[in-house]
Amino acid sequence: MTIPLWLHDQTPVQGTPLAPDARHDVVIIGAGITGLSTAVMLAEAGVDVAVIDADAIGQGTTAAAAGMASVLQGTTLAALRAHHPARLVRAYVDANRAGLDWLAERAGTAAERRTAFTFGRGTDADTALDAVRDVAREAGLPVRVDTPADLGGHTPARAVALDDQIVVDPALVAWALSGMATAAGAALHTGVRVTDVHTLPNGRVDTDHGTVFADTVVLATGTPITRRGLYDLKTRALRSWAIAFEREGDATGPGGMWSEVGAHGRSVVATPVSFGRDALIVTGARHPVGSARSELALAEELAAWARRTLPVGAEIARWSGQDYQSHNLVPFVGGMPRGLGRVRFATGYAGWGLTNGPAAAMRLTDEIRGVSRGDRPQWMQTIGTRLTVPADIGRGIGDAARRVGVAAACAAGASPAPVKRPAEGAGVIARRGLRTTAVSTVDGRTRAIVARTPLTWNDAERSWDSPVDGSRYAPDGVRLEGAASTDLGVRTGVA
């Protein structure tokens, strides 16, 4: 498995043991940026809170982030404005500005102020950059057009710039927030896997360490692990790569943080001083989970671009992360359908969780504490009353068609059973009648698991990835992340 740069040579922060049958006002599932921000806000308001995570503090999506907290967000604002009214884009900007300000205050000196750039090269990028500039200004952001010279490359870059954004070490921030939460009275339980969430007769969370009870359960798990609202079908699970390099020689650029227009969606940022080691992080190769012919090839293409374009030296770390994009491009935050007001959630940050996460926490906190709608910030009221527009439905239909197509391709590509033992690091789907099996060989051991959903082999992380709901599984069928809440069964022998 790939390990984010932020976690190298670090000792994970662990929580305390879970006491079965404990009762709390709120139980938060997920100890990433959203869950921890919500825990801090609620605990400091005197609410009895417990946070549960199957891993250590701030692992998962939070640790996989490149550390960029920006309201500019590449081409996000222009994409929103293409299908939504200006007031909704303004509300989205205000929400993320509030999230950024809260994060900067809590991170303190670990938050490093930088200029954010949305950049492109050549005349083909001009239209997209003009749209970013115009929408950002319409939404009240003091952006400017720049022609920076320190990004590198043979073609001059043009950029839309927004000053006073921040870069952080996301793992360090998560650990700091966990300390603030526990100092305010919250309980943090790590290494505890949630298996189910119930709403009747009251809020109940089943785990592999026992059951806990709460008036409210918050799902801060990237995508909800309960399918009450079918949000795995209302969002796209997206995976992208990040590679960290040493700088070449005595090179000092580029400064700031950079997000490229266009299909590749590459970003470049230098690590903050608080990390303690200077490096350039390049991200990109974004794609729906389970859709890549080769994850290794995508990562290699990104590395090759960095070496052609930037003053990079030796590679330090390489990792992949996962996030979710809603079909209407605005995060889903609030009460879970059929959750009886006892289950709340947040998802759909589309890669910008360091600002959207705290903003979601603010909204969740106000809703849980019963703050009247009229007393909430205007951005909460606007986002909370948005309507679905035809473009949202169209994106949903298009993504559903993509899933069907990928599922059909997975079925068509299955090999008749029995299959030969896969080579080391390889995986193959075998089919006998209606029974489908995923077979892989990792570290000299061949395993076969029940493929009850279409799966594709991830040759870089050596996992089985579902192109349907974005769930990912280890070679032995253990769930790694995604909408699924259970493991896949193991078949004896090779199919």
Mean pLDDT across residues: 91
Q: Tell me, what is the CATH class of the largest domain?
A: Alpha Beta
Broad structural category? alpha+beta
The tally of helices reads: 11
For the CA atoms, what is the radius of gyration? 22 Å
Q: CATH homologous superfamily of the largest domain?
A: FAD/NAD(P)-binding domain
Reported for the largest beta sheet, the result is: 9 strands, mixed
Strand count: 26
Number of domains: 3
Distance N to C terminus: 25 Å
Gist?
Residues 25-366 form the FAD dependent oxidoreductase domain. This protein has helices at residues 33-44, 60-64, 76-81, 86-107, 126-138, 170-183, 231-234, 295-309, 353-369, 378-384, 390-412, and strands at residues 23-29, 49-53, 68-69, 112-121, 144-146, 157-167, 187-190, 194-198, 203-207, 210-219, 235-247, 257-260, 267-270, 280-288, 312-326, 332-335, 343-347, 415-416, 426-432, 435-442, 445-450, 456-458, 463-465, 472-473, 479-481, 490-491.
Topology, pairings included?
Elements: E1 23-29, H1 33-44, E2 49-53, H2 60-64, E3 68-69, H3 76-81, H4 86-107, E4 112-121, H5 126-138, E5 144-146, E6 157-167, H6 170-183, E7 187-190, E8 194-198, E9 203-207, E10 210-219, H7 231-234, E11 235-247, E12 257-260, E13 267-270, E14 280-288, H8 295-309, E15 312-326, E16 332-335, E17 343-347, H9 353-369, H10 378-384, H11 390-412, E18 415-416, E19 426-432, E20 435-442, E21 445-450, E22 456-458, E23 463-465, E24 472-473, E25 479-481, E26 490-491
Parallel strand pairs: 1-2, 1-10, 2-7, 4-12, 10-17, 18-19
Antiparallel strand pairs: 3-6, 4-6, 5-6, 8-9, 9-10, 11-14, 11-15, 12-13, 13-14, 16-17, 19-20, 20-21, 21-26, 22-23, 23-24, 24-25
